[in-house]
Structure formats: structure tokens, C-alpha cells
Amino acid sequence: MEGLVSQLHSNIQQVMNGGGAEAVKRNRKRNKLLPRERIDRLIDPGSSFLEFSQLAGHELYEDLLPSGGIITGIGPVHGKLCMFVANDPTVKGGTYYPITIKKHLRAQEIAAQCRLPCMYLVDSGGAFLPKQAEVFPDKENFGRIFYNQAVMSAEGIPQIALVLGSCTAGGAYIPAMADESVMVKGNGTIFLAGPPLVKAATGEEVSAEDLGGATVHCMKSGVSDYFAQDEEHALAIGRNIVKNLHMAGKLDGSHNTVAEYKEPLYDVKELRSIAPTDLKQSFDIRSIISRVVDGSEFDEFKKLYGTTLVTGFARIFGQPVGIIGNNGILFNESALKGAHFIELCAQRNIPLIFLQNITGFMVGSKSEANGIAKAGAKMVMAVSCAKVPKITVIIGGSFGAGNYAMCGRAYSPNFMFFWPNARISVMGGPQAAGVLSQIERANKKKAGIQWGEEEEEKFKARVVEAYDREGSAYFSTARLWDDGVIDPADTRKILGLCVAASTNPSVVTGNSWDKLILNSDTPVLVEFYTSWCGPCNMVHRVISEIATDYSGKLKCFVLDADCDPQVTENYEIKAVPVVLLFKNGVKRESIMGTMPKEFYMAAIDRVLAS
User: Fold this and answer.
1) How far is 484 from 15, CA to CA, in rounded Å?
2) 416: which strand partners?
3) Among candidates 593, 514, 579, 524, which has minimal Cα distance to 554?
4) Which residue spans adopt a coiled-coil conformation according to this UniProt entry (predicted)?
5) Which of 59, 421, 543, 581 has the fewest CB neighbours in a 10 Å radius?
6) Phi-psi region of 84 (alpha: psi -120 to 50; beta: other; left: phi over 0)
7) Does residue 250 surpass a pLDDT of 80?
8) Which among 265, 269, 274 has a CA at the least distance from the CA of 294?
9) For residues 22 and 89, is the Cβ–Cβ distance under 8 A?
10) Which CATH number fits domain 1-247: 3.40.50.1980, 3.40.50.720, 3.90.226.10, 2.140.10.10?
11) What is the per-residue pLDDT for 531?
12) CB-CB neighbours of 328 under 10 Å
């Protein structure tokens, strides 16, 4: 595994150079930062940035396309987790290849699912024209980016654009459709048609700055809202925009959202040596779990039943999770156990973490007679219907229907990652070679063609080679079948950030809101507001401070009364702002209007003491 981890870090280091030394040099001459430098200045100092799909586009095209030409990931800005989408102008001028679009759309999907504010760092020449048939006309092509922006904005998920370079043609809609946008003097430009096309179409000769620079769009057209003197100024404005968003309090997944937690008893770096590169070699999944969860404390569920599947409850950075890990092939009992545990977590609103190392379900006449298909279907149904955050990490094999039962990509996990030793295929290469060779032999026999043993072995070798290549973690991540290949030693940190993002308080609406209040073992504060209410902003500032002061003792959430009228009606909210306090699912305090911080604190103390 150490060799695979070294190779992973080497591959990642290569894409960190973007489009190469010359492209970076040209970027510097224009006084422009690189995309990851821009993100680093936006997120809170000392905090973590979780970058997705760093190796997107790896060996996918004849041209090199480091990270797919776009950087995406989540990190905190003033304590609020945000989704970042940053074009890399050093890679093909920041233009969009098919994989670039897919990566952009995946970032938007995560943002919508977790209700994360989106920060678009725009520096792009638009669609890559030589591949126009693959980037323009279909549903999940370039136009879907703007559709997603419109839908998220309408749902109250902030859309923020920082125009730090070119923003041409259809790409101009990114800042135009943002809730707030910033433009940099000199480098930032927005236009549907650039100077060459304008001259060809109308005969007008105009510079890029005069056609669509920051002065034009901040002073005349009104397309942009903030004028920045340089990039540093633009990034500072971007941070201030997030600071002023009316959202729930501290959501920094880089540290615990609960007051205290224990580090694992075992070194997380030992994860690199536990999982073998030979998937035929077995290991106890509990050795992985003990290096990921708080205090290495794991309350195992049905320990003596269905032992090839390990299930149980734990915490990661103080956040409760349910863990499902493979300890061998899935039998009837283990599938039924898995379905039962998934349903429990769904009822209790507990996020699920799947640790995949599965060759599939048990096959054979005995298993079929015992109903393995039905038992497996129950687990697949439970995974499909569980409306709680799901995070999947493939730590070994992921084959056949086992992939489905353990929340593969088709089952919409909030996040999905591979370890570098991971393999994913409909079946193993040798098994596929055996099946396909039987079919090929039968076809040749029917056609009256002799098929010698040597030819058959060559045929099998080609199948095995293809399955080995297409089943690798790098083949998967290049095509965005996952959200990234990760160092096993980073698993705990990444899971903590993903759980924090997935349990973002503003995600909870409708029926799940009631479920969260009823099932919470910690007192809950709910702040009802509307975006147009001035006093609501005053109350929110106070509640944000209280959320920090009472961290670990109180869960604080914000609910837009306009967006959830049914919940507002259920709790008989007649006017806003209103703050409700719950304990054990029962409403204990109701505070209307604006009150001093001390008033809210006294009410909270009464509830905590009750």
C-alpha cells in the first residue's frame, strides 16, 4: 500500500502545476493568482479545504487536462462551509471539456444536496469548441450549469461569482445569474461575444475592457455588483459577502461541531498498512473502524449474527454516525442485518458510512434456495430509500451487486471516495474471462470454427488486462465515478468534513425537520426568519454568538418561514423573528421579537436545567 500511496501523491503533485510552467508564468505576468491560491485566500486561515476529483481527466484525453481544468471542493468561510468552483486558466485557457462540465455539475449537485453557498471563481474562455458536440447540446452539458444556478438561487442557496479573468459567451451567465458578483479591474471581463466576434458581426472595433470590463459592468450595465481594484481586493469582498449571508452559525467541518471528542486510540497512518493490495487477502474491517472513529469506540450492532457484515454506531469528530463495513462475502443473514441497520439509522436521522470491500453476494444452489436474491434486494431497497446522508469509501474491492448493496454511485451517496488499492468492476477479471471465453467458444463452435487452447488463453489475457485497467481507482476517478482517490491516512479527516457538510442545519426542512427535533438527544434551538425581515438580522447575529457559546450543549438551526410554510403552520408561527427551544422533542420556550442576548441565554439555561 505504501507504494500506491506514494504514487497517488506523485500524481496529485503533478496536477498541482496546472497547465505547466509556461502557462503559470503567463498567468503571473497578468498579476493573477492560481486557482488553488485563490481558494486558499478565501477560506478561513488554518482550516481544511476538501478538494474533489483532483485526478479528473487523468489519461482521459490525448491532451493533458490536469484536474479536468477546474478545481472544486468545500471549505469554511467565516465558519460557513461553501462549495468552490474555480476555473484554471492555465489549462486550455480555462475552457470546458466534457469532463470539466461533469465536474462542475457534480460540485453543484453536492452544493444543492447539502445547501452549501456556491462561490464561482470565474476565469474561463467558455466551451472547448473542438468538442462542441460533446459539451453543448445534451441535458447534462454546458447549459445545465446555469439551470442549476437558477434553481439553487430560487431555493435560497447563495450563488456568488468572482470574475477574475475572462468570462465569455455562455459562461457570461455564471456572474449574470449569481445573486452577487464581483469583478476585478483590468483582468475581469464579461461579454457574450468577444472583440473579434463583435468586429466580424458588426464591424465595431472595441477593446475587451471597453466591451465588458469591470467599469462597464459595475457602473453602466449593472451586471456586476462590486468593483475590485485587484484580485486580493476581490477575494476580500467575496469573504465579506459570505460573512453577511443569513445562514446558520458555525459549520466549519475542519474541526468538531461538538465541544469535545476523543482521537482514535490508534494512529490513522496505520490505515496505509492494514488494507492489502492483494484483494484475495482478508483483514478485519474493525481494524479500519478503530482508526477512524472517536476514541476507537464502536458500539457494534448484531455482532454475532451475519458476521460477514459489521454494523454499529460511533462518532466522528463528535458527530454520530452509523457504520457498515464488509468482512467478507454477503450471505442472507448479513444482507438482512444490513437492511435492518440501515432502516434504524434512517429512522433516527443518523448519517451512514459505508466501508466497501465486497466481492458480491454468495452464489450457488444452496444460496439461491435460501433466497439470497430476496435478502439482497431488501438491503438494496433499504439503501435506496434511506433519506439520510450517505458516505461511501471503497477500501478494497467493489464488485457486482455488492456495490449496489453497499451504496455505490448509482445509489446517490452524498460523497464517494476510493483508496488507491480499490478496484471496481461488474466482476473480477478472471471470472469475466471465464464467462466470456465460454460464450466465445460456443459461438465459434456454432460457426464451425476451431478455437485452440493458445488462442483461448490469449483471449482470456486480453479480457483480464482490460478489466484490470478499467477497474482501477485511477480509471474511475478520471471519469468522475467517484469524488476522489484519497490517502487512507486522511480518511477520518475527510469523513468528518463530509458529515459536517451533509448535516448542514439548513438542509433540514419539512418532515425531516420534525424528525430531527423529536430524535435529538441534545436541546434544540430553532430560529424562524424571513430574508426581508430587518429585525431577523439582528436576532440572527445574537443567535450566531449563542451557537458558539453553547457549542456541544445546544443544536442551533435556522428556518426560512417563507420556504417552509407547512412547518411554520405546524408550530403556529404568526410573525417573525421567533426563537423556539425544544428538549426531548417537546417545545419548552417560545421567544418572539428582538431580545437582548441575556434574555435568550436565560431561556436556554432554563431548558438545559429542566
Assistant:
1) 13
2) 392
3) 524
4) none
5) 59
6) beta
7) no
8) 265
9) no
10) 3.90.226.10
11) 58
12) 16
- Long-range own/partner contacts, residues 439-442 (CB < 8 A, 24 or more apart): none
Q: Which residues contact 341 (CB under 8 A, 6 or more apart)?
A: 301, 302, 311, 322, 324
**Residue count (the chain):** 610
Distance CA(260)–CA(529), nearest Å, equals: 30
Q: What is the pLDDT of residue 76?
A: 92
CATH ID of 505-609, from 3.40.50.1450, 3.50.50.60, 3.20.20.70, 3.40.30.10 = 3.40.30.10
DSSP string, 65-85: -GGGGEEEEEEEETTEEEEEE
Buried b (16+ CB within 10 A) or exposed e, 207-242: ebbebbbbebbbeeeebbbbbbeebeebbebbbebb
DSSP, collapsed to helix, strand or coil, labels residue 136 as: coil
Q: Which residues contact 462 (CB under 8 A, 6 or more apart)?
A: none
d(CA 63, CA 70): 15
Nearest to 174 by CA among 102, 238, 223: 223
Query: Which string of DSSP letters, residue by residue, matches 582-608?
Result: EETTEEEEEEES---HHHHHHHHHHHH
Show the cell assigned to 431. Answer: 471470472
- Supply the residues annotated as catalytic: 533, 536
pLDDT of residue 247: 57
Cell of 404: 449496489
Euclidean distance between CA atoms 376 and 381, whole angstroms: 9
